[in-house]
Amino acid sequence: MRIALHTKVRPDRVEEYEAAHREVPEELTEAIRAAGAASWTIWRSGTDLFHVLECADYPRLLAALEDLPVNIAWQARMAQLLDVVHDYSADGATAGLPVVWEL
Predict the structure, then answer these.
(1) pLDDT computed for residue 84 by the predictor
(2) Based on the structure, what is the number of domains in the chain?
């Protein structure tokens, strides 16, 4: 399945957000892959962030990551940098952007 998400980085934290993503903990990327993600790409336009995630089962992926200490620490770090935060707990499993058109 393919999931699209929209978040917003705080205007005064753009550089810090990008720097954080240059050094995502390997333990976290391994956990995301183990939870079923094939890819995750984030684009930025100004302060708008657009994510596209390819995975087998998004709700299962979120549930697998929810209680991992490395993910909890990462989400706490991101909460300091973002204006609009996606809920990366099991409760956020239905928060993807709806598809409007596809070729």
Answers:
(1) 75
(2) 1
The token duo for 97 is 């952007």
Q: 2 has which bridge partners?
A: 54
Distance CA 52, CA 43 (A): 9
Q: Which residues pair with 52 in a beta bridge?
A: 4, 41
Q: Is the pTM above the cut of 0.85?
A: yes
Is 27 among the domain residues? yes
Judge whether 33 lies within some domain. yes
Residue 9 has which token pair?
Answer: 């980085």
Task: Assign residue 24 the CATH number of its domain.
Answer: 3.30.70.1090
For each successive 10 residues of the chain (103 residues), what is the average pLDDT? Answer: 94 98 97 98 97 95 96 95 79 83 93
Nearest partner of 64 among 40, 96, 41, 30, judged by Cα: 30
C-alpha–C-alpha distance, residues 30 and 102, integer Å? 30
Contact status, residue 5 vs residue 97, Cβ threshold 8 Å? yes
